[in-house]
Amino acid sequence: MEPSVRPLVVLVVDDDTAVRAGVCRALRRRGCRVTAAADGEEGLAALRAQAFDLIVSDVQMPSRDGVAMWRAALAARPELRGRFVFCSAGPLPGALAEAAESERFLAKPFDMEELWEAVVAAAGRRTE
Fold first, then answer.
1. How far is CA 10 from CA 85, 89, 91, 95, 97, in A?
2. 9-123 has which CATH code?
3. Cys-Cys link to 99, which of 29, 37, 62, 103 (CB 3.0-4.6 A)?
4. pTM of the model
5. Which of 109, 105, 99, 107 is nearest to 68 (CA)?
6. Strand order, beta sheet including 54-58
């Protein structure tokens, strides 16, 4: 009998409602417990309210973008370094250069298999 694996607890932050819903749906189908946020401010509020294994975040968002959220999240919870998967339709801003060594990046549009591989890698788990 194989030991049971605790479901990943994932925060998805994206201002595009359709993208956010699609990513949440895909992760839930893989057994993840998912919380959604529409921008960096909501994302930080969720991070203050509960613990997450990893964060899937858009880069360009109103209110607080993914870079600002990443910096604030790491200031409050340094253990989240390496636990972000950033998604962007445009070129990554230079401000994310400091994240390049520890975080993962997906170019939009991406397929859900690519997303899952990045999530598993960020969580430090093996795919089966």
1. 11, 21, 24, 24, 24
2. 3.40.50.2300
3. 103
4. 0.89
5. 99
6. 33-37, 9-13, 54-58, 84-88, 104-107
What is the rounded distance in angstroms from the CA atom of residue 37 to the CA atom of residue 16? Answer: 10
Closest CA to 58 of 45, 74, 40, 81: 40
Q: Look at residue 111 and give its three-state secondary structure.
A: coil
Pairing verdict, β 54-58 and 84-88: parallel
Q: How many helices (H) and strands (E) does the chain have?
A: 4, 5
Tokens for 86?
Answer: 């950033």
CA 108 to chain centroid, in Å, comes to: 14
Domain spans, the chain: 9-123
Q: Are 66 and 95 in contact (CB under 8 A)?
A: no
| β-strand partners of 33 | 9
